[in-house]
Structure formats: C-alpha cells, structure tokens
Amino acid sequence: MSNNTGNILTALLTGALVGAGVGILYAPDKGKRTRKKIKKSAVKAKDDISQSLTHAKQEFSKTADAKKVEFEEKLEDTLSSMSYKADDILVALEKKLEDLRKKNAQLQK
C-alpha cells in the first residue's frame, strides 16, 4: 500500500474518532440514544475504512499488473537487442577466425 493511501486511512480514522468524541460531548440526547448514534458512526467509519482498503487494494493490483507488463516488455526488448548484438559479435569473431586460418595457412607454406 502506498504512503498516500496510509495517510488517507489515518486521516479517515482520526476524523471518525474525533467526530464520535465531539458527538458524545455535545449530545443533548439521553445515554441510550447517544450510544446508538456512536455505534452508527463507528459502523459507518468501519464501512468507510473497509471501502477505502478495498479501493487501495484494487489500485495496488492495477499498478502491480501494469508494472509487470511494462517490465516484461522492457525485458523482451533488452533480450532482443542483446541477441542482435550477440549475432554481430559472432559474425565478427567468425571473420577474425577465418582471417587467422588464412594467415596460418600462408605461414605453413
């Protein structure tokens, strides 16, 4: 999970707690009704956090999938490029070997 998502979740949780605390302090209702409101606020906060976590997981999954595809494409490009370079090196080495064989043949005469 990214740092930004962690900050959002922390802010959301802090807001829910502060809201519940302020609600308790300024509640003109009786205790039973106040407890019911607090419970409702806590359930809503839990649902909000759960929804935020689900969204964060989905975003993380999308990002991970995109990065995987990007990595695979770059790896394929690199391997392809290396293959061409290896072929060029082999051709150059074969040419050098042929030149050496010709020189060796001349020296053998």
TrEMBL record:
Q: List the transmembrane segments.
A: 6-27
Protein keywords: Membrane, Transmembrane, Transmembrane helix
What the entry lists under InterPro entries is as follows: Desiccation-related_membrane (IPR052928), YtxH (IPR024623)
Q: Which Pfam families match?
A: YtxH
Q: Which domain of life is it from?
A: Bacteria
* Name this polypeptide is given: YtxH domain-containing protein
